[in-house]
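4.2 Preliminary Data

To establish feasibility before requesting continued support, the project team ran the inverse folding procedure on a target of 189 residues. The structure was first converted into the token representation described in Section 3, and no sequence information of any kind was made available to the design step. The complete token record follows.
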């Protein structure tokens, strides 16, 4: 059983099937990421990975569907890194399909993932990274209560230029003070 976390605009939940996941990933990989350059993951490899654990593998990474509440449309993916015993922090990442960006879905999905991770794992921090020039992503991370904690110089090479990657963190004691915790609904998938 996996707990579904529901906010006021979206819920994060397990993917129903591979087709649902593949639709979002195909849209993501169809257009080169202007911040990190082109990416790809062969469809057969995606399907094999999904068949193993439905993208909910606590030893490697996990991906949840971001579903709009008003239309039940999938608007993106909320992911997290390994949830191994003894870890003090977990990384998260958010991808929102282009037509749904700048509508608050990514922000709320991040907040829901913070709740899921802090409520289910004995961690002290959640981390995220983005490109220094990706101002929308940085604004969303900061709106979730995360703060800048580091920078890697020239880590990405895109279209002939080098770009910095910035790292954000939120600690458990900060998350515990966020009002979103009282709004979130939790339920079984």
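Position-by-position output of the design step:
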């Amino acid at each position: 059983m996996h707990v579904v976390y529901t906010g006021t605009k979206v819920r994060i939940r397990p993917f129903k099937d591979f087709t649902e996941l593949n639709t979002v990933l195909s849209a993501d990989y169809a257009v080169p990421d202007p911040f990190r350059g082109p990416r790809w993951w062969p469809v057969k490899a995606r399907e094999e990975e999904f068949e193993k654990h439905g993208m909910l593998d606590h030893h490697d990474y996990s991906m949840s569907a971001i579903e709009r509440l008003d239309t039940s449309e999938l608007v993106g993916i909320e992911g997290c890194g390994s949830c191994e015993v003894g870890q003090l922090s977990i990384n998260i990442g958010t991808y929102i399909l282009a037509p749904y960006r700048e509508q608050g879905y990514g922000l709320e999905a991040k907040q829901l993932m913070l709740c899921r991770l802090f409520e289910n794992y004995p961690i002290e921090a959640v981390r995220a990274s983005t490109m220094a020039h990706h101002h929308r992503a940085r604004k969303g991370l900061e709106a979730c209560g995360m703060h800048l904690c580091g920078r890697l110089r020239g880590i990405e090479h895109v279209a002939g230029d080098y770009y910095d990657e910035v790292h954000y963190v939120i600690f458990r004691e900060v998350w515990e003070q966020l009002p979103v915790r009282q709004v979130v609904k939790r339920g079984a998938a």
